[in-house]
Amino acid sequence: MTGILDKKIALVTGGGSGIGRATCIALANEGASVAIADLNPETGNSTLNHLKNMGAKALYIESDMSSASSVKEMIDITTKKLGGLDCAVNNAGIQGELSSTSECSEENWNNIISVNLTGVWLCMKHEIIHMLKYKSGTIVNVSSSFGLVGSPNMPAYSASKHGVLGLTKTAALECAQAGIRINAICPGTVKTPLVDNLLKEQPDIMESIIQRLPMKRLGKPEEIGISIAWLCSDKSTFATGMVMTIDGGLTTQ
After folding, report:
1. Active-site hit among 16, 157, 183, 242
2. Mind listing the pLDDT tens digit for each residue in 199-216?
3. Dist. CA 19–CA 180, nearest whole Å
4. What CATH fold (topology level) applies to the domain 9-245?
């Protein structure tokens, strides 16, 4: 397969499902070899089999983004087995429990922050260390529309996603002259397992979500994946420190 990422080597965290899986498929469609990192072997291997059936070169790595040693090992395995790292998509994240700021437990707060924010920082740290050796590379961090606006009953999630944008902008400035571009993407409400879990907890919320969206529909994971592929490619060479919002107009209101 050839495309805008032909011969590139990519890593996608949280690649087993949702936006991560769609991103793996989009990158492979554009010619990239893909390392699929996910804590869940079942979903990770499902994505791996899909990519192999497409004819893509791919591997699955069981990884825990909240563990510094696991993240470093993930980067080491990717670079050794695939031969390098040109594009990294830091997508892995959890929703955690829904609760107000005053009722959010320390355990819930720490769990969400450790994966969604500290995990992204750990990934960026080791990705940048590798990319600096070659003065080349692209990183895309997956934030959220709730990294731009608040979300009642999701204090840790919103805080973590706001933090991802701060990390993105800071690292982009640090790496601007080093040949490394770092951007973020803010998806709105997309039909993913994360949203499915939310609907299980609050089954009556779907109609209110749809009504808040100017386009009156949920996003599709594929719509996010192809945008990430563009940010990873040489089609976006003057873009760094950018926050790309794909939310059906939600935060435009």
Report:
1. 157
2. 777 777 777 888 889 999
3. 23
4. Rossmann fold (3.40.50)
